[in-house]
Amino acid sequence: MRVLLLHGLAGGANVWDALLEHTVGSPHEVWTAELPWRAEGVPGWTGHSPAHWVRQATGRVPGGPDVVIAHSFGANALLALLDEEPEGGPAPRPRAVVLVSPFYRPRPEAFGWDAISYYLNDFDRILADGLRVRSGGRLPDDLRREMALKVRDRIGPYGWLSFFDTYLRTPDLRTDRMTMPCLIVGGERDFASFPADSEALCAALPYAKAEILPGCGHFAMTERAAEFARLTEDFLQSVA
């Protein structure tokens, strides 16, 4: 099967490196995308919707991906694409998806001013935790915070608004029509995308299963690489 990996906001294809180390010898054809919201940033990417960029990525996989594994903001961009109805009919869909730490709330009332404050004022703390995980904890706290602030500034207000607008629109997703098998993986200690988001999305999708990993944060594919590889391989085998 052809598998496409999509990273989250301020990430990159290297976020999957730990997972790929545990899948050496896999029979699957694995592709990774470098999306324009990656850490170094591509100016003007917010001129198109997140779904647009995922469509571009899936279109560059010869034959199209059978399974898409997407993390964080990348997972929400994928959900937005699956919800679209472009002119000329729906776009080809993957046979199955894996959503890692997606952002989701089932009702508009679930968003309050506190949510805006949290994701705006604590945005750099979320970015700093990503740097901690990817560096293996080798960065001193003060350096990590300084780097997180630089990444935050590179994302900028438009990038943040694109993320939060995508999150705000999740109650409107027509999840009942997303009938492909779906595996959702969340982390018990994830303070960016809370476990409740993963569980609520699982309940909203027709054929979904959620795995909340104990003691894990926002980057299950890095923090629990071996376990994540086993979960995804079992899922891919069931799909095959």
TrEMBL record:
InterPro entries: AB_hydrolase_1, AB_hydrolase_fold, Carboxylesterase_BioH. Residues 3-230 form the AB hydrolase-1 domain. It comes from the Bacteria. Pfam families: Abhydrolase_6. One of its GO terms (molecular function) is catalytic activity. This is AB hydrolase-1 domain-containing protein. It comes from Streptomyces katrae.
